[in-house]
Write a structure and sequence with these properties.
The chain has 252 residues and is an alpha/beta fold. It contains six helices and 13 strands. The longest helix has 18 residues, at 133-150.
Length: 252
């Protein structure tokens, strides 16, 4: 299978390097187009105000001085000689669950593939430093064939999160829904040596709430979470309610 691999931690990140090797070992044709530096929390942004610089590293790898979305765009729209059959993003250093998928550059690469009509998988590791990336890579290498078959319309998105601990201790993978993040962010004000104020957006590690079938509950319970995503943002319940409004003419 022709796979485009990207991420938001940068082309030299451990998660991406490990996943690339696992996909190659499984016999897939892998092209890597990833940011040349960390682009965490870049969300679904694209670079419009300047040209992009692309550096070829050889062996089907390119580094882009842009976002994960930029990487998928340039790869599909001309950089690669053939259109990929699947886009895989990650393995991210840290989880992407609940509402955090809207901030994630890792998930954004999968979203862009969806827009371009290519099925995609976003992959993330709960334990940033001590996670079993090798086990996760092998899991994804086995999973990709199923994703291609599942994505009948060619636009399926699967968001996969791996728990902490060794892969041998993980529970069976489960299909989940997104949980709800309980926010504890804060604005931290500091002062530089010249007396000018600057700010950090910070806070404690997120906590979550939701039913046992949510991504955070499954991952915190030691199993692999697989959540199908969709970019259809229309609120169907609100459509019915709004249809009863007596708005009348826009102009009188």
């Amino acid at each position: 299978m022709r796979i485009l691999l990207s991420n938001d931690d940068g082309i030299f990140a451990r998660g991406l390097r490990t996943l690339r090797q696992a996909l190659l070992d499984a016999g897939h044709h892998v092209s890597t187009v990833a940011p040349d530096r960390e682009q965490s929390a870049s969300s679904h942004s694209i670079t419009l105000e300047r040209p992009l610089r692309i550096r070829e590293h050889g062996n089907g790898e390119w580094a882009v001085d842009g976002t994960p979305t930029d990487c998928v765009l340039v790869a599909v729209n001309g950089l690669l000689p053939e259109r990929p059959e699947l886009v895989v993003s990650g393995i991210n250093h840290g989880p992407n669950m609940g509402e955090d998928v809207t901030y994630s550059g890792t998930v954004a690469a999968a979203f862009e593939a969806h827009i371009l009509g290519i099925p995609s998988v976003a992959t993330s590791m709960k334990d940033r430093d001590g996670g079993d990336y090798e086990a996760a890579g092998r899991f994804v290498a086995r999973l990709v064939q199923d994703v291609e078959r599942w994505s009948g319309d060619g636009r399926g998105i699967l968001n996969v999160n791996f728990p902490a601990g060794p892969g041998s201790a993980w529970g069976d993978a489960r299909i989940t829904r997104l949980g709800t993040r309980r926010y504890s962010d804060e604005l931290i004000e500091k002062e530089d040596p010249r007396g000018r104020k600057y700010y950090w957006i910070g806070g404690a590690e997120p906590t979550w709430e939701g039913n046992p079938d949510t991504d955070f509950a499954v991952v915190n319970g030691g199993a692999v979470s697989m959540t199908p995503l969709n970019l259809e943002l229309t609120d169907e319940r609100a459509l019915e309610a709004l249809s009863t409004w007596n708005i009348g003419r826009v102009t009188s």
